Automatic annotation (TrEMBL):
Residues 257-276 are annotated as: Disordered. This is ABM domain-containing protein.
């Protein structure tokens, strides 16, 4: 068994006019669970008049033999303590995180006045919003010029709100790299697609895609597709077509010569309105 630190992140989407009002609405919940606010974000561009408040709570180190089981159990335990009389919602798991969404208006309204939904996440040691003592890892060594490959990932998620798709996509991409950047988010009838730049890799495209697919750990990927421009593509599809969670993936690796216009650090991800 391995001793592992786990951390809970509770994100509340609440109706509020400004950040102070959003903090005030969540104060009772913060005190109740013994947590602290680690981020507040204006999400009125997604839903007019709403803010997202994220509350962090550290858990005691536990002895675990299965990372996924420990993460899922932490979520279930917290939800049972928070709402003991309510049915336990489905818990999804993509190590290093597991999560569930509470969207029962009657339940959420009792926990936080004016709240619309509540997301509960458990993270292992790779949790975002690390404590102040956390030190960023050293910058990676420059990638050699030979076989420099650009790697991209598209994550399709059956979810109503783009924000919910983005954290699921980031959690999955963290299996490959901690430096993933969201470049585009699109919404359609079946859910939301999140496009991520996974950076540059020293392997040739075919090997980069193969290694990335193995890191994502899903069975039954499509045969590797090699294109005339030297790029490599591999796809995964959940044949059960779930009504929530990740439904399909696409990995694309392009040689450096196939240059594309990546957003710079100062440019926000591209957002396309539904139907555009």
């Amino acid at each position: 068994m391995v001793e592992q630190d786990l951390r809970l992140l509770i994100s509340v989407v609440v109706s509020a006019e400004d950040e102070r009002q959003a903090h005030d609405a969540c104060r009772d919940l913060v005190d109740r669970i013994g947590g602290r606010v680690v981020e507040a974000a204006d999400c009125s561009d997604e839903e007019p008049g709403c803010w997202s408040v994220t509350i962090g709570k550290d858990l005691p180190a536990v002895q675990v033999h299965n990372d996924a089981a420990a993460l899922a159990r932490s979520v279930r335990t917290f939800v049972r303590e928070l709402a003991p009389d309510s049915p336990l919602p489905r818990v999804c798991c993509e190590p290093p995180t597991a999560w569930t969404v509470l969207d029962d208006p009657d339940l959420i309204g009792k926990l936080v006045e004016g709240a619309e939904r509540l997301l509960v996440e458990a993270w292992s040691e790779q949790a975002p919003f690390q404590p102040a003592s956390y030190q960023e890892p050293a910058a990676p060594e420059p990638v050699p010029a030979e076989h420099r490959t650009k790697l991209r990932l598209r994550v399709d998620v059956a979810v109503q709100h783009p924000a919910g798709a983005q954290w699921q996509a980031r959690a999955l991409a963290s299996r490959i790299t901690e430096a993933a950047t969201i470049t585009e988010v699109t919404q359609g009838g079946d859910g939301v697609s999140v496009h991520l730049d996974l950076g540059r890799w020293p392997q040739p495209p075919q090997q980069a895609v193969t290694d990335a697919a193995e890191a994502l750990g899903r069975p039954e990927w499509s045969p590797l597709e090699l294109r005339a421009d030297g790029s490599a593509v591999q796809r995964w599809l959940d044949i059960l077509r779930p009504t929530s969670g990740i439904t399909s993936l696409e990995l694309v690796a392009e040689p450096a010569e196939a240059d594309v216009a990546w957003p710079t650090e100062d440019e926000p991800p591209v957002w396309r309105e539904p139907g555009s």
